[in-house]
Amino acid sequence: MKLIIIGPAGSGKGTQAKLISENYKIPHISTGDLIREEIASGSVFGGKLEQIINKGSLVPDEDVLKLLKKKLDASKNGFILDGYPRNLNQAKTLDEIAEIGTVIFLNVKDDEVVRRLSTRWQCKNCGEIYNTDAKPEKNKGKCDKCGSALYQRDDDKPEAIKKRLDIFHKETRPIIDFYRKKGVLKEIQQKEKPDQVFTEVKKILG
Ligand SMILES: [Zn+2]
User: Does 61 reside within a domain?
Assistant: First the structure.
């Protein structure tokens, strides 16, 4: 079971990837986590990545790919890949190192993405995420878990959301067409609740 999950920010792909990982007993692979783990391991390569990030630069594709290849090779029974590929080049490269069986596309419309992200608040202390509509905090502006103040992330502000959507349409749409042509794309239309989405996921994966 070699899977990819794709969707815009706010589509809930992280939540679904986690559910898939737990229910189908396959690792949830996120390239962000791989980079953090490599740095935490204290390896020479991790040290190099840390320097790049500390300078505020993006980790080069070839370095991400190196980490990814190692992890994919170690995941013989399958995986769910989240946050990669982000553009057509990466999709083509990935094609050379793994045979992807199913690509799940969470199709959430732009206005819904804007609505979800602009009502999202995060705890400054523990990182817990709340949503004014779907998951409000019990005491206004305070985290249920630790009582710290909630804030809106810079990338959840209207201008930043618009920019993220533009990038999604420009970079990620071609990936969707790429997998559709290969016959491995499964699309799930937007739903209110994560468990409704997961019901659709189970229909696809069996
Ligand atoms: Zn908290």
Answer: no
For 5, phi and psi rounded to 5 degrees?
-120, 130
Q: 36, 86, 186, 191: which one is catalytic?
A: 86
Distance CA 33, CA 31 (A): 5
Domain assignment present for residue 50? The answer is no
Q: What is the extent of the structural domain holding 84?
A: 2-27+75-205
Work out the angle at residue 153's Cα, subtended by the Cα atoms of residues 150 and 157, and round it to the nearest 5 degrees. Answer: 120
9: left (phi over 0), alpha (psi -120 to 50) or beta: beta
Region of 11 on the Ramachandran plot (φ > 0 left; ψ -120 to 50 alpha; else beta): alpha
Q: What is the CATH number of the domain that holds 20?
A: 3.40.50.300
Whether 13 is covered by a domain: the verdict is yes
22 part of a folded domain = yes
Q: Is the pLDDT of residue 155 over 80?
A: no
Distance of CA 53 to the CA centre of its chain: 19
pLDDT tens per residue across span 64-103: 999 999 999 999 899 999 989 989 999 999 999 999 999 9
How far apart are the CA of 128 and the centre of ligand 1, in A? 6
What is the number of structural domains in the chain? 1
Cα(142) to centroid(ligand 1), Å: 8
Q: What are phi and psi of 193, to 5 degrees?
A: -120, 150
